[in-house]
Structures are given as C-alpha cells and as structure tokens.
Amino acid sequence: MTCPTSSSRIIIVSGPSGSGKSTLVQRLRDLPDLMFSVSYTTRPRRATESLGKWYDFITEAEFERKIAQDEFLEHAKVFGRHWYGTPRAQVDDARRKNADLVLEIDVQGARQVKAKLPQAIAIFIVPPSREDLERRLRERGQDSDEAIGRRLERARQEMACSCEYDFVVVNDDLERASSEVRAVVVAARCRRADNNERLRKILETFGGS
Questions:
Q1: Strand partners for 134
Q2: How far apart are alpha carbons 128 and 48 in whole angstroms?
Q3: In what helix (H) or strand (E) does residue 94 lie, and over which residues does it extend?
Q4: Which of 13, 56, 109, 131 has the most CB within a 10 Å radius?
Q5: Model's pTM, two decimal places?
Q6: CATH superfamily of 10-37+99-205
C-alpha cells in the first residue's frame, strides 16, 4: 500500500549508461498515480526501440525549434552529438492528473530540473564497480570499443556528481535495488510537507485545525 498523492511530484532517476536505471524505472510501472516522461531525441532509433515508449525521435531542426519556443523543462547535447530533452508539457499533464512524474535523465538534465524545481526528488543509480559496468556495456553488444570507452569516461564524470542527488542506490542486486528505488518513491508520497492539506482535514475531524 502507498500513501495517496496530494500533489504532483517530480522523481529524477539518473545513472551511467549500463547502470540499469531503465530496468529499475520499468519496475515502478505498477505503482498507481505514476507517469513516465517520454523524452525527445535527435539520435537515430535503434531496431529494438518502440516509438513513443522512452523516446520520440525528431530532427535536429525540430529540436532547435522547440528550444527556441521554450518547450523543454531540460535539454542537453550528449557526447557532443545528439540532443535529448524533457517536454515541459508532460509536467503540466502530470499536475492536471495529480500524478507523480518520473524523469529518466542524465546529470546535466537533473541539474536543470533541480534549478527550476528544487523540490524534485533525485535518485542516482550506481553500478557496483567500473569493471562490472564495462562488462554490462560489452554484453549489450550495441557499441564499438571506442563508444564503450566514451561511455566509461562519461560514467567516471557522472559518478563524481552522485553527491548532488538526494538518494543513491547501488544496483548490485536487481531485486534489492528495485525495492530501494520503490521505497524512495513511496516515502516521498508520505512526506508531511506534501500532505499538509490532507492532514488538516483529518485534524478537523478530531476538533483541531
């Protein structure tokens, strides 16, 4: 059982490529009143990817137009090659539906969101070691040695930013890590500051105010 949501919360999930953050986010999908952001990107769609599940794929010209029109909550160019961005409209949609919104974004994006929405809850997913992360990246069979090298260097830089996050989850055991991420989301929904109005109404039934 989870505490009911009284207002929309933003849940940020970040971590190095290969840390397992997408799998952990996927395991939250059975929680009620939870929405998952679909990012825009200019990178090519992989054969295994479905349109609109994790990403909407658009041209660089379209992306730049959206930047100019201030349509993004956050956006960044990754590896100096492809753009990624979270549509601001999805935050508004979550608020209208009184649902919490999960953003699976990188460190650059997380900083932008935290600057605009300091109350957002940020979770950083950590692999158990560099060696384990490299093994995972190689087992995926998606990248060249050069690309894996870039991802490992980026992971080193991102790991140094983990102290900026509210929670850190080490993904050395999928079931335990999944339970910990879920616990963060559930605990966030039970924070007193987010339930003041609901508590006030309950106190009124006891003759308080």
A1: none
A2: 26
A3: helix 88-96
A4: 13
A5: 0.86
A6: P-loop containing nucleotide triphosphate hydrolases (3.40.50.300)
